[in-house]
Amino acid sequence: MDTLDADLAIAVPAAAAPKRSRALPRDRINGQPGFVLHSYPYKETSLIVDMFTREYGRIGLVAKGAKRPHSKLRGVLQTFQPLSTSWSGRAELRTLIDAEWVGGMLPLERTALLCGFYLNELLVKLIARDDPHPALFDHYVATLNQLAHGEPAQIVLRKFERALLKETGVAADLSRCAGSRDPIEPGVEYVVDPERGPRVARLSDTWPAVDGQTLLDMERDDYADPVTQAQGKQMMRFLLAHQLGGAPLNTRQILIDLLQL
């Protein structure tokens, strides 16, 4: 792990991980697609790795001896690299048996690298362990590719944030008002209740107000309008903060400070 990786990786504490929500899988899994989200030292020569896999979700693995100079795993367990992984065990922390680099993706650099660490921090803090999300895994891969190819980070991140909230079951339908189910209208100001969904804004509201057109655009993943980009950023920041219980996102603050994303 290079210096930047090490500095940013420690911003995702293991203690922030949600509780497990599903039964643990069978003893031995072979050749599962996965990405390292975060790793930290374990004993003298090993690592604990937070891995995001396609069929088994976010899992914890002990990579025995991975810190030894000649370990095969030492150069493989890098963030944003597609891996084929094998592990065994039924405990919350399984034992990593093998990990091989698959290839086929461009590396993340500069702004894209910071954005990648932001994605990883969101997954560690908002996805429960042992809770499969294959559609979100595919979206994660697509998002990394988009960032690596220089697509606008502000738009790419908003789409991923929205997909993450949908996958975790907390994203409301942005095309209709909560409760009344009246259709959202362009030119009308709304707020989005994190627990219920959109409603018409009131003068007393302290939540971020957005135009109805912004909500309709976001429901379609259309961020071509600069107003939608600006209002969508504020709204997603508010909704994510609610889901995080007010806990700060370290990598988001870096992005805000450096890039205003």
Task: List key phrases describing it.
261 residues, alpha+beta, three-stranded antiparallel beta sheet, 8 strands, elongated
Structure commentary:
The chain is α+β, with helices and mostly antiparallel strands and 261 residues long. Helices cover 34% and strands 21% of the residues. The chain contains seven helices and eight strands, in the order αβββββαααβββααα. It has helices spanning 3-9, 111-126, 134-148, 153-167, 212-219, 226-243, 250-259; strands spanning 28-42, 46-53, 57-63, 83-88, 93-101, 189-193, 197-200, 210-211. The strands form two sheets. Strands 1-2-3-5-4 form a five-stranded mixed beta barrel. Helix 2 (111-126) packs antiparallel against helix 7, helix 3 (134-148) runs antiparallel to helix 4 and helix 5 packs across helix 6 (226-243). It is elongated, with a radius of gyration of 19 Å.
In short:
The chain is α+β, with helices and mostly antiparallel strands and 261 residues long.
Helix/strand order, N-terminal first: HEEEEEHHHEEEHHH
Count of alpha and pi helical runs? 7
Q: Label the overall shape.
A: elongated
Q: Which structural class matches the secondary elements?
A: alpha+beta
| Residues in helix, % | 25-40%
Spatial separation of the terminal alpha carbons: 26 Å
- Output mean pLDDT: 87
How many strand segments? Answer: 8
The proportion of residues in beta strands is 15-25%
Largest sheet: 5 strands, mixed, barrel
Report the C-alpha radius of gyration, rounded.
19 Å
Low-confidence stretches: 1-21
Identify the strand order in the major beta sheet.
Answer: 1-2-3-5-4
